[in-house]
Structure formats: C-alpha cells, structure tokens
Design brief:
The chain contains nine helices and 18 strands. It is of the alpha+beta class. It has three domains: about 130 residues, Rossmann fold; about 100 residues, D-amino Acid Aminotransferase, Chain A, domain 1 (2-Layer Sandwich), CATH 3.30.470.20; about 70 residues, no CATH class. Helix 1 packs across helix 9.
Length: about 325
C-alpha cells in the first residue's frame, strides 16, 4: 500500500498518479495530513489500532510526502476579526498534533521526502553546502541598517529573499502578489529604518545561466535555464515565465554531483529540487534545495519523464516491502 500525502489538485501529484494507473497499480491512497477526514485511533490495555480512512497503518509500505495544507473553514471566516485567526491557529495546531503522530507511526516505512526534511532552513543548507566545498553567495542576516549598508558597499549589487519559504499575498478582490528574489539598490537601503526585521541579504551572483536540478534516489536530472538579458528580469527566473526562458538538458560535472550527493545525504534528503548558477568565472554556485520543489519544470522541457520515474520508484519500493 502506498500513501501519498498531498493537497487537492497538485499538478505534480496528479501526473504521478496517472502513471500509477497506467501501470495498473491502484493500491494507493491520497491524504492531506492536515485534513484527514476519517480517523479511527484507539488505545486499549493490550493494543493500539490506527486506521486512516479505513486503511490499517500496518498495511502501508511506502509514503510519498508531497505537501500538506489546511484551508480556513467557512464558519471561522464568519467570526469577528481577531477571533477567526485564533480559532484557525488552534485548529491547525490540533491537526498538526495528529499528523505528527501519524508520521511517527509510519517512520519505519520507505519515505520519498518526509515532513522533517521539508522544513530544512535555507541557512542550514548554505552552511552545510560550504562545509562540503560547494561555493555559495556571500550572505548576511541582519537586523541592523548600518551592517546592511556596509555589506551593500562591499558587494555593490545585492539581492534580498525570504529566510523561510516564499509566500503570496491576496487582496480583497482575490488578486495575488508573489514574493520573488529581488535586487535592492541604495535608495531602498537608505529608506529603511535603523532597526530591521531579520533580513536575508546576499551578494548578487552574475551568472551565465541558472541550473535547476531534480534529485531522485541518487540520480541527478539537470536543466540549464537561459533567461533574457534584461537585468531586471534575470534575478529570479520564476518572475520571467518559462515561455521567455530557453531551457535545455544539462550534465553536471561528476565533482559537483558528488559534493551535492554528500550535501543531500547530510540533510537527510532522497529527493529535491536544487538551484545553482554557473558564473562568468566558470564556477558553480549553490543557492538552495527545495525538498518538495516542482519537478515538472525540469521534466517536460528536458524529456526526463520524472513523473514516470517517481511512479516506478514507489511501485518498486512497495513490491520490495511485500516480498520481505
């Protein structure tokens, strides 16, 4: 039995499921860890029974942790402002408490990705990459405008990005505003207050091209991304749109792959999307790894058929468990 922890309508999940069905494999279930609708968990004097939507937890062989999410119930939205957020936070913590116990009970199964590794901080990734001999951008985390000015004067061109994950903001009309990596200038810096929220600043890496790598069970699937030369657009390829990028298959040097394998092993990852750059100094620079990153943007342009490979891996691990 394969359990897929995901959210409704995740396109990458649906593509893998199509391959499972193409292989006539139907012994799987999709569950949202924060919204499991049918749970039967009972502790008695002599045993523990645990069922997830009718599935005995001991019958599960393989877990693919894709992502989780929790929408705000309509009844909470109708509460007065101030109360709705508190009730939602409480409900989410209740759901997380149950999902964390569920993950613990499944810890002896084969996992493709896991909830712990999905929350590895960018700062830990950078420090671990540096330990493994992988070049990273000069980085500053600060609450001081003065230190930010000194860093800016040293590097001249800097970018700012979220410390955690990117997020989207929506106005009352439903229009969205996405957060991307952005270049900052001296006017931006001068207009800041003396004391900042903790801010993540890096030197801007001038690159020939970016590289997006999908890592799956010891194999690398890499793609080079050539963005438009307009300097306002090539900071974050996501802000440009794939239709304006040239995307081609790419082969990383063995030395870089070996260093990345060691990094991923140290981070406890058996899958993830890695962001790199290749500079005009002919250096590979590591930015980050997203354990639950979208792999479709690499799969389709490069004909890697990653959805098929993931489905095959899940089936193989399930069959191995049945034979043991």
């Amino acid at each position: 039995m394969i359990i897929i922890f995901s959210v409704p309508n995740d396109s990458s999940t649906l593509k893998v499921i199509r391959w499972l069905l193409r292989y006539n494999f139907q012994n799987f279930k999709i569950l949202n860890p924060l919204n499991i609708k049918d749970i039967n968990f009972q502790i008695s004097d002599n045993k523990v029974s645990f069922f997830l939507e009718g599935i005995a937890i001991e019958s599960i062989n393989v877990v693919w942790y894709r992502r989780q999410g929790m929408s705000i119930p309509e009844k909470i939205l109708q509460l007065p402002n101030g109360y709705n957020l508190s009730f939602y936070t409480n409900l989410r913590e209740e759901a997380k408490g149950l999902s964390n116990y569920t993950f613990k009970q499944l810890s002896d199964k084969f996992w493709l990705n896991n909830p712990q590794s999905s929350r590895i901080s960018k700062l830990l990734q950078l420090s671990e990459a540096q330990k493994n001999g992988i070049k990273i951008p000069e980085t500053l985390i600060t609450t001081s405008k003065e230190k930010l000015i000194n860093f800016f004067e040293l590097h001249k061109s800097c970018i700012i990005k979220p410390i955690a994950e990117t997020f989207s903001l929506f106005d009352k009309n439903g229009s969205g505003f996405d957060g991307f990596t952005k270049r900052i200038d001296i006017d931006f810096v001068n207009n800041l207050p003396k004391t900042l929220n903790p801010s993540f600043i890096q030197e801007e890496i001038v690159k020939k091209f970016e590289i997006r790598v999908f890592f799956l069970e010891n194999q690398f699937y890499s793609m080079a991304i050539f963005s438009p030369k307009n300097s306002n657009e090539n900071i974050d390829v996501r802000s440009v749109g794939s239709e304006r990028n040239r995307q081609v298959p790419f082969c990383l040097p063995t030395e870089i792959e070996n260093k990345l394998k060691l990094l991923l092993k140290n981070l406890g990852l058996n899958s993830g999307s890695i962001d790199l750059a290749y500079t005009f100094k002919n250096e590979f620079v590591f930015f980050e790894v997203n354990p639950v990153g979208q792999f479709g943007m690499v799969s389709l342009p490069c004909n890697y058929h990653l959805e098929k490979k993931i489905a095959e891996l899940l089936i193989m691990k399930n069959n191995e468990s049945n034979r043991s």
